[in-house]
Specification:
homodimer, 8 strands, mainly beta
Chain lengths: 145, 145
């Protein structure tokens, strides 16, 4: 593996726990995360942060309180705007990419058994140390701010 | 197509011009862009913005002044930190996703025949009007700020 290069296939292969996002890149204060999900998550919103969903495998349903459900298949891209309450549901295992600010809590302000700290999401991130996130030396972790 | 959902395959299919990024989603002041590239781009940097490259098809070489080249294949993810001069090169056509702040100029401060304005990058973006970028109504365009 070339230094600093992360590969989506390899990263997905390394994810063994569902609903536990793995940070694979940081840039401009945003994180690129990968996750495998199945079943129903929790209702939550992010008051100040939009959240981009990109499905790589399987199917994800985003339920909303105030609008029709949205169903995403492979290659589909959707942005849940800040402040919009949503609940992700996947009947079968779904592999997805999330783009969101580094400070976004993946369960919003709802503390649940699903909740993973940012440290946990980073430590699942493979061979690069957490300190590299703000190292600014190139590779999948940019300056991070 | 479900309202607000964009699909990577369809978007790539719709891109007919090389080196002309298409904005497919906006969130948190960042753009998700797709591009097809071939040949050698221009040397440039982005003083204040990291740039995330994700290759979907083909191979992209990132040349640097101050470090070894990086070669990216399908599924590879790499962040060029802000301020680092680079020159993307693709021997054969390469399909890639870029993640960067909305204000990033894709050729940095270098004005070249390749240079496309943000308006051009948005207008190539398919059925949603440019005004939707900051509409905050959901879909691939979040609140955009």
């Amino acid at each position: 593996m070339m230094d600093g290069v992360r590969n989506l296939d390899r990263e997905f292969d390394g994810i063994t726990e569902q609903w536990s996002p793995r940070v694979i890149a940081a840039a401009n204060g945003q994180y690129v995360k990968l996750a495998k999900v199945q079943g129903e998550f929790v209702w939550h919103d992010h008051a100040d942060e939009d959240e981009v969903f990109i499905v790589f495998r399987g199917r994800l349903v985003l339920r909303f309180r105030d609008r029709a459900d949205v169903t995403l298949g492979p290659g589909d891209v959707y942005v849940v705007p800040k402040g919009v309450e949503h609940c992700p549901v996947a009947e079968d295992e779904c592999w997805l990419m999330l783009l969101e600010p580094a400070e976004t809590k993946h369960t919003g302000d709802v503390e649940t058994p699903f909740t993973r700290s940012v440290e946990e999401q980073l430590s699942g991130g493979g061979p690069r140390p957490v300190t590299a996130v703000r190292g600014g030396t190139g590779g999948v972790f940019g300056s991070g701010n």
